[in-house]
Structures are given as C-alpha cells and as structure tokens.
C-alpha cells in the first residue's frame, strides 16, 4: 500500500502482466473500473491515478463513511461541520439563508473510493473526457463536463461482492456542496437527497455479463444519497425522474457508469476470473497469424498487429467493411473521388480500414477466436463481445444515446455496426 501526501492510504492501482501472477494473500479484490475507449492503456501511458483502469482492493484500514445526523443552518459555509476538515458532510442549499447539513461518521464496515476529474488527493481514480477514435494525436477537451468530484463507491469489507455507487465525491475539506439550483428533495418528509448537475448514470446489464448472453438494461440515475431514479428529461434538467423500486445502486459485473464525458465499466472480481486474460487475447492473435492469412492481390502474408502504428506496412491487414474480406494494402479497385474501394473477391464497394485486435480483457463477454470487427474502426473481438457492445447504447450529449466500440469509443456506423471477418488462410 502507498501513503498519500495527506497521510491517507492509496490502494494498489494496477495488476501488471508479469511472470508471477500471484497476489499477496492479504489483498482482497473488489473489482475494476475500466474507461470505455482505451485499448488497455492511455495514449501517453498510465501514470499514477490517471490511467485507463483502476483496481479496487480492500484497504488495510477502513475509510468509509455513513450518514449520521442532519440539521438546518442559516449560514452553511460558516457552520462547524463545514469548517471542520476532519468531518465529512454534505450541504444542501435550500435558499440563500438556509441549508440542510448532513453529517457523516466513520464506517468501519466499508471502504470508500472516489472518482472524478480533479487531481486532488481525495480522488483515487482521475478520469478525463474521452475523445472518440484514434488516440495517437489526442487533443484535450477545452471545457470538460465531468465533475471534479464526480462519484464515490463504497465497498463492503465483510462482503467484497457488494459495492454501491453514489453521485458526488467529498472534496479536500471532506465536504460536498449542492447549490441552490441543484435538484434536491426530502424523502418521506425526513431525509434529504439530491442530484448532481450532469448526473451519474448507471446501467446494469440484463443477465450475466460474462458468458455472452447479457443484454443492455435501462439507464437510470443514482443520487447523492444512493437512491436510483429514471432519467431526467435532459441531462441537467431540474426535475428528477421516478424512483426505480426494482433497481439499486449496487454494482454488478458489467455495470456501466456514465459521468457525462467518460463512461466506466465495472467488472467484479468474480467476473474477471471467468474472463480472458491479456495473454489469452494475444494467443488468439498468434493463432490467426499462424494460419498465414494471405492478401489475394499482393499474395503476401498478412500479420495482425497487437496495436496499430501510423506506419504503412505491407503485412498490415485491412477489412472491407461491407463484406468482411480481409486483405493487404494495395491500390486495386480504389476510387479516387470517394476513397471507397471495390473488393477484388466479391466486387462489393465500400470503405476499408486497418484491422487491429481489441486487447482490453475487461470488455470481453466470452473467450474465443476474434472473428468479428467493429465498423468503422476495425477493432477485432469475439462474436458475442462485438455483438454485445453493438447492441449496447451509451449516453451521448444531453439526452441522446449511441453504440460505440469499447476499445476506441468510435460511434458505430450503420446497422448492425460490425462485420464478420473472412480471412484467406488455412482455416477458411
């Protein structure tokens, strides 16, 4: 474990692919948070708390908090709970001269992990806005829509399979402020609750994520107090949705968490045990390459790379997105005006893109050969994995949804948004 500058404990952030895969026995793993749109790493490399995935381990000492007492104050910013840097509290501003303060006390039964855009010490996992497509020359978003202290997860130390998500995170002074314009209400005329400006949306899949039979569930919103509600009319609308009594804020394997600018996938420790490893995915690539697939025009052997480079390579495979035939780089059938090409095997016209393996294991719903690719990016995956993501909708903008490739966040083209790969090799 690592100590932060403020003396609090920071959990181990990653599992490295080394020869020794055994973990120290005292570490209990809750699960992983993985950002959609990255193929196993950030463009400039994973550094510290800013990375493509975050592993949640049981802490040596509990740091969770639970709701205690609440009361009304006239000047919230000068109240004792707000001024006390050791006291966790949430301030719900009702009017300029009135606010409800909810105090939180230490909870020995839970571990708390916080996610947001801020790089300040209370944030365990720093998340920036995801830019769709190729990340090689990634530009920064000028104005982020992700909250600095976006959400928090409380994991049950006695039952590691239970982790709950809440909107908003505590800042450096251990406070959460909901302003006068924020959506808030009293439950049962007693306990107060609220929503953050752009909200924290979650989607639990229907069925088991690992196994390939799951379907996209309905998107709901979680509140600061952990309640779950139907979506607002638009992302930051003032009126909250209806309470969802058949849903909860307990994360399950495959739950998606949308922070309005980045979407995270929760993988449980049990689910990851049943998922392919990075080595399994690399072996699947090696097996296809061992079949020595050939380009029917250049008659040269193609080699699927583990990641795409900007350099042109005669061995780099390309897929014709309208038919699925995989070939090498050549100029046959190229149309000068449109950039489309005619496939020399079936004569279908359409776009062509480099083929590249999807290497983030957490996105896979099953194990097997990578026989399908997303359209238009060309990332390969198993049939069930590609079809699952093509049929899963991700929040986009204020009230829209679309399907994306999980490996690069590129919006999928057309229907179904993928193509079956056809190699000219010894297994075809």
What does this structure look like?
It is a single chain. By secondary structure, the chain is mainly beta. It has four helices and 30 strands. It has a seven-stranded antiparallel β-sheet. A hairpin with a 4-residue loop joins strand 26 (372-374) and strand 27. The chain is elongated, with a radius of gyration of 24 Å. It starts with a strand and ends in an 8-residue tail after the last strand.
| Large-scale geometry | elongated
Distance between the termini: 50 Å
Radius of gyration: 24 Å
How much helical structure, as a percent, in the residues?
under 10%
> For the residues shown, what is the average pLDDT?
88
Structural class of the helices, strands and pairings?
Answer: mainly beta
Low-confidence stretches: 1-7, 11-21
Give a summary of the structure in a few sentences.
The chain has helices spanning 80-83, 269-273, 278-290, 383-390, and strands spanning 2-3, 9-10, 29-35, 53-57, 64-73, 88-95, 98-107, 110-116, 125-126, 151-156, 163-167, 175-178, 184-187, 191-194, 200-203, 219-222, 228-230, 256-258, 263-268, 318-320, 326-327, 341-342, 349-350, 352-354, 356-357, 372-374, 379-381, 394-396, 400-402, 418-420. With 428 residues, the chain is mainly β.
């Amino acid at each position: 474990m690592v100590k932060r500058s403020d003396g609090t404990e920071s959990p181990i952030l990653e599992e490295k692919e080394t020869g020794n895969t055994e973990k120290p026995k005292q570490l209990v793993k809750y699960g992983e948070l993985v950002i959609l749109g990255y193929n196993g790493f950030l463009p400039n490399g994973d550094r510290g708390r800013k990375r493509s995935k975050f592993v949640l381990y049981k802490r040596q000492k509990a740091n969770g908090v639970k709701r205690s007492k609440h009361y009304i104050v006239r000047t919230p910013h000068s109240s004792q709970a707000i001024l006390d840097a050791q006291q966790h509290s949430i301030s719900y501003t009702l009017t300029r001269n009135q606010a409800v303060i909810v105090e939180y006390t230490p909870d020995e039964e839970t571990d708390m992990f916080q996610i947001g855009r801020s790089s300040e010490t209370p944030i365990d996992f720093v998340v920036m806005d995801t830019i769709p497509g190729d990340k090689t020359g990634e530009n920064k978003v000028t104005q982020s829509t992700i909250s600095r202290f976006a959400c928090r997860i409380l994991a049950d130390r006695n039952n590691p399979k239970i982790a709950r998500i809440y909107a908003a995170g505590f800042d450096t002074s251990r406070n959460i402020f909901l302003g006068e314009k924020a959506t808030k209400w009293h439950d049962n005329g007693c306990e107060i609750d609220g929503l953050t400006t752009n909200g924290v949306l979650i989607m639990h899949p229907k069925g088991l994520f690992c196994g390939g039979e799951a379907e996209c569930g309905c998107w709901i919103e979680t509140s600061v107090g952990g309640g779950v509600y139907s979506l607002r009319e638009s992302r930051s609308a003032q009126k909250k949705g209806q309470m969802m009594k058949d849903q909860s804020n307990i994360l399950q394997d495959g739950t998606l968490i949308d922070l309005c600018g980045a979407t995270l996938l929760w993988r449980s420790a049990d689910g990851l045990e049943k998922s392919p490893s990075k080595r399994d995915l690399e072996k699947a690539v090696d097996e296809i390459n061992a079949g020595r697939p050939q380009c029917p025009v250049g008659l040269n052997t193609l080699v699927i790379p583990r990641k795409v480079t900007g350099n042109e390579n005669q061995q780099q495979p390309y897929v014709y997105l309208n038919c699925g035939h995989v070939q090498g780089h050549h100029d046959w059938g190229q149309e000068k005006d449109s950039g489309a090409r005619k496939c020399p095997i079936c004569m279908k016209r359409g776009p062509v893109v480099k083929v590249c393996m999807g290497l983030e294991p957490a996105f896979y719903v099953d194990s097997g050969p990578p026989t399908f690719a997303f359209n238009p990016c060309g990332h390969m995956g198993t049939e069930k994995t590609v079809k699952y993501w093509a049929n899963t909708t991700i929040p986009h903008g204020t009230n829209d949804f679309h399907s994306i490739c999980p490996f690069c966040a590129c919006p999928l083209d057309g229907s179904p948004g993928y193509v079956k790969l056809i190699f000219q090799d010894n297994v075809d």
